[in-house]
Design brief:
The structure is a homotrimer.
Chain A: E1 6-11, H1 18-30, E2 35-40, H2 48-58, E3 67-71, E4 82-87, E5 90-95, H3 101-106, E6 111-114, H4 130-143, E7 167-169, E8 172-180, E9 186-191, E10 205-209, E11 212-215, E12 229-233, E13 238-243, H5 248-252, E14 259-264
Parallel strand pairs in A: 1-2, 1-3, 3-5
Antiparallel strand pairs in A: 4-5, 4-6, 7-8, 8-9, 8-14, 9-13, 10-11, 10-14, 12-13
Helix pairs in contact in A: 1-4
Chain lengths: 265, 265, 265
């Protein structure tokens, strides 16, 4: 017996939301053998950018052929499109509002279609919950082998949203905090690749975030004593600021969007 | 190979509670092929009414034949009964304290039995966690095909709890906020059916909740600008009040039970 | 078709963390038929003792042969070992920092090996997320039948951490609050066995926690009226203090570590 592809769910419904369970009920009703994984439901409400970062960070750990459903959808019920995109061999279902844009900057989708064929949806579609009424049934049918091309007409390009660019200057890189993880660590948008040739010696490199500064680039948290602010390349491959054994975001009062500067000599 | 029915779990143990994992361990130990779905574990502690609303809203999205386990059980260890009810082809396991009463108002159960036969429970039953020691093993055995009738003697009627009634008057309906969703939207107990014939034009209909008032009946959140209070039929089929892109419950300080009035001309 | 063993996950990543999803992606990529259960991800950050208690309490409800993965790992990236231990027929994967020490006090592991063979890990191992890069792929391979002995060399003994001992005196037992459950109940480290012969009559037994005192030893919450502080043997087999229908931890401001004294005549 061959296993159906995994379906992953990412939403902004909040941890443990019964709305997620409704989506799962719809999926299992159409494909009783479906296999579901929660990516996270704690995307901040309507924060498409945060959802896009999480998709970029987590979906690469899943096999090609997985079906990733994303519901961060402030425009639900308006004329915004719902799309299905094939990217790097996996299928993504989402509103066309930028949720897929971090991943699409890395790899161009090979196929994009708009979801326009109601025969693959629930018979009754609400105006406020297309995750349950459109995306969930479409995901279930794709997991049963439905062809992406049947879902609707091809779309030329995804909606783009602007992303603050990381600035690389001689001896200096400027980016920003792009997310706070559950330990309160400050994950920036500065990728490891941009720091590959910079020194790590505390005498030669300084990292600044808001009014706070730390020296050196470390490999892991325990290289510094508790309560110390340190910079390191985090597990997602981006520069991260952490306070050892503490919650940096709370202690320093720092939120996403705060500028981060790396300077070296 | 035929798949065993899904077992869903709804509790008030809190999101991510290890007590839920204990129930899952018990179920998998008895039926290694069991298939489990979390409905939610964020029912407010001991709030039987909130659990009853969630069951009414979410279980219809699951296939007939599913096994729904509900543990909101302030009377655990007292003489309150545990029951198994068959309703609309699905099986419900719960304390007999009203948790099933919203669903039972819609459709009468075809079978109700009291759980009295200890051979289907864990060998040792605690006085404070019947979800783990009685309901979980019974759910596992039902998923293996055990007959409901073996669990104990028939019960004539479920315990009833009182529900505030929605009042329909000429040009006016009065209900209440019955739950707050994870976006802070105020979900009322006024069903869409009762509003089918009322006008939606902002000049003809007003919705009031506490001291707050909004005009018109909309179809989706994005029909009004951010920060606007609006009324719409939510995805669960009930009248809902929301502040566009904001948390209405927090901004207005409104809790469940607050009266909601709809008036039209 | 025989089912692969369950893999359970316990971490301090926080409820609904996408980091957990990354671990799941790694596991499913290596064993598409893997079967995963979340124990909890709400272990307080870096609180190895709290994780050890949860493992002791919950893992016995899972079948022998299960694979339990624990990631509470303040020393990630340092020279601390990662280990695989076989205990009571089940497999445990964790940093060797005491996370397994509550269980190991009950039953000695029959096998302990250090994880030193990188061929079973992800090809690239970060310095800050060994749960994803080492433990998850090892768990997946064990679920496919890999022999524990291949993971690395035997280890003679686990790292021990100190545990406050429960003091038993004539007519008196002294312990401490070891965890707060999601209802706010105060779970102590005083096991039921040590209370088997003490009287339960309110006139003969007093339980004190901080400045608060209650009389009698009850069987379930509902034996006392709402708002009453009462002592009982909780579902985990330890003495517990609860306020009926309320959150004792919040109402009394009590945290883990607070001494608890039982005295009887």
């Amino acid at each position: 017996m061959s296993l159906p592809p995994l379906i992953t769910l990412l939403t902004d419904f909040g941890a443990d939301s019964p709305y997620v369970a409704a989506m799962k009920g719809v999926i299992y009703s159409l494909n009783p053998a479906a296999r579901l994984v929660d990516l996270t439901h704690s995307v901040p409400p309507q924060d498409v950018r945060a959802g896009a970062w999480t998709w970029e960070e987590i979906t690469p750990f899943f096999s090609r052929g997985s079906i990733h459903v994303g519901v961060v959808d402030p425009g639900v019920g308006t004329s915004r499109r719902l799309i299905c995109a094939v990217l790097d061999g996996s299928i993504f279902l989402a509103p066309d509002n930028g949720l897929l844009s971090r991943l699409a900057r890395r790899t161009a989708p090979t196929t994009i279609v708009a979801l326009t064929e109601p025969e693959y949806w629930l018979p009754q579609v609400s105006r406020t919950f297309h995750g349950r009424d459109v995306l969930a049934p479409v995901a279930a049918r794709l997991s049963l082998g439905l062809d992406v091309g049947l879902l609707g007409p091809p779309v030329e390009r995804l909606v783009e949203i602007s992303w603050p660019e990381v600035l690389v200057m001689p001896g200096k890189i400027q980016g920003a905090v792009r997310s706070i993880d559950s330990f309160g660590n400050l994950v920036t948008d500065i990728p490891a690749a941009k720091l590959a040739d910079v020194p790590t010696d505390p005498e030669r490199i300084r990292v600044r975030c808001d009014e706070h500064e730390t020296q050196g680039l470390f490999k892991t948290y325990a290289e510094q004593p508790p309560m110390t602010l340190l910079a390191l390349i985090g597990s997602s491959g981006y520069l991260e600021l952490a306070i050892v054994e503490e919650n940096a975001s709370m202690m320093l009062g720092i939120r996403t969007g705060t500028p981060v500067t790396v300077e070296w000599t």
